[in-house]
């Protein structure tokens, strides 16, 4: 469902919508940048998330570092000043939030234990979903085969090309099927983050009826913010930190609705 610059969706369990569970959501380009750094202020983000949380929820967030680091928390305060790329919890008052712009948002929910969470998964972070699920098993007694997993809008292989070294890394660590040779660019490959994560989830025993993959490519679809699309005309002399200020960062979250 789309409204006011963001969309929401529901989890699926054995190919059927989950009843009485949390919903996930993600902002789009029209909502403006949701960029987050602990040492910065972003009034646009603060206003949006304040409306999202209302009086009954607390936003919990981390500063992203493109890692496999996942935090299991019971309160938002536990994440003050923390850096990482994933948050899981059983506390329905919390709204785990990460930011994305071409990287994959991964939304999680396990109905039996009540664990839910939010992950940021770029190429460096591919595999973070395994880290999160294993942490949920250890910390909360969750069962991996009952996890519901949604891979949100992200850059798809139509727009994501990588060199031989990175392609080989994904072939060896995930599945050869996630990379294909570019016909018009020697030594370069198209990379599917979705196929890499699907191979990992299958290996872990996640039921395919519990997995949803969004087909929207953030680089192709101008409704979404995209690092690759929005920075391609910038000077190559700009540093990565400077380039990161010229694209629309989106917020992605999982939230239990008010009873």
Characterize the structure shown.
The chain is α+β, with helices and mostly antiparallel strands. Helix content is 21%, strand content 28%. It has 6 helices and 17 strands. The chain has helices at 43-53, 128-140, 164-173, 193-204, 227-231, 240-243, and strands at residues 2-3, 6-10, 12-13, 16-17, 23-27, 58-61, 70-73, 86-89, 94-100, 104-110, 115-121, 148-151, 161-163, 179-181, 188-191, 211-213, 250-255. The protein has a 6-stranded mixed sheet, with helices on one face. Strands 7-8-11-10-12-16 form a 6-stranded mixed sheet, covered by helices on one side. A 3-stranded antiparallel sheet has the order 13-15-14, with helices on one face. Strand 10 (104-110) and strand 11 (115-121) form a beta hairpin. The longest helix is centred in the middle third of the chain and has 13 residues, at 128-140. The radius of gyration is 18 Å and the shape is globular. The two termini are 20 Å apart. The mean pLDDT is 94.
- Strand arrangement, largest sheet? 1-2-5-17-9-6
Label the overall shape: globular
Please summarize the sheet with the most strands.
6 strands, mixed
Portion of residues in beta strands equals: 25-35%
Estimated radius of gyration: 18 Å
The mean pLDDT is: 94
Helix-and-strand structural type = alpha+beta
Cα distance, first to last residue? 20 Å
Q: How much helix, percentage-wise, in residues? A: 10-25%
What's the helix-strand series? EEEEEHEEEEEEHEEHEEHEHHE
Beta strands, count: 17
| Count, helices | 6
Instruction: Show unreliable segments.
Output: none
Short description:
The chain is 21% helix and 28% strand. The chain has helices at residues 43-53, 128-140, 164-173, 193-204, 227-231, 240-243, and strands spanning 2-3, 6-10, 12-13, 16-17, 23-27, 58-61, 70-73, 86-89, 94-100, 104-110, 115-121, 148-151, 161-163, 179-181, 188-191, 211-213, 250-255.
């Amino acid at each position: 469902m789309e409204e006011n610059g963001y969309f929401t969706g529901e989890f699926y369990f054995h190919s059927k919508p989950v009843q009485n569970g949390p919903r996930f959501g993600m902002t789009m380009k029209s909502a403006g940048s949701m960029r987050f750094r602990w040492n910065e202020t972003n009034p646009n983000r603060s206003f949006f998330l304040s409306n999202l949380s209302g009086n009954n929820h607390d936003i919990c967030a981390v500063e992203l570092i493109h890692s496999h680091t996942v935090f299991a928390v019971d309160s938002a305060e536990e994440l003050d000043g923390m850096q990482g790329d994933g948050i899981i919890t059983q506390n329905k008052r919390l709204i785990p939030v990460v930011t994305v712009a071409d990287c994959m948002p991964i939304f999680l929910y396990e109905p039996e234990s009540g664990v839910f969470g939010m992950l940021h998964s770029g190429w460096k972070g591919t595999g973070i979903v395994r880290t999160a699920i294993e942490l949920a098993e250890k910390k909360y007694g969750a069962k991996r085969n009952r996890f519901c997993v949604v891979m949100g809008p992200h850059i798809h292989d139509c727009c994501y090309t990588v060199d031989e070294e990175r392609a080989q890394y994904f072939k060896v660590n995930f599945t050869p099927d996630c990379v294909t040779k570019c016909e018009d660019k020697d030594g370069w490959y198209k990379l599917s983050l979705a196929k890499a994560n699907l191979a990992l989830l299958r290996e872990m025993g996640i039921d395919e009826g519990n997995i949803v993959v969004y087909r929207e490519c953030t680089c192709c679809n101008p409704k979404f913010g995209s690092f690759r699309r929005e920075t391609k005309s910038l000077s190559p002399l700009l540093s990565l930190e400077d380039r990161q200020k010229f694209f629309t960062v989106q917020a992605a979250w999982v939230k239990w609705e008010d009873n």
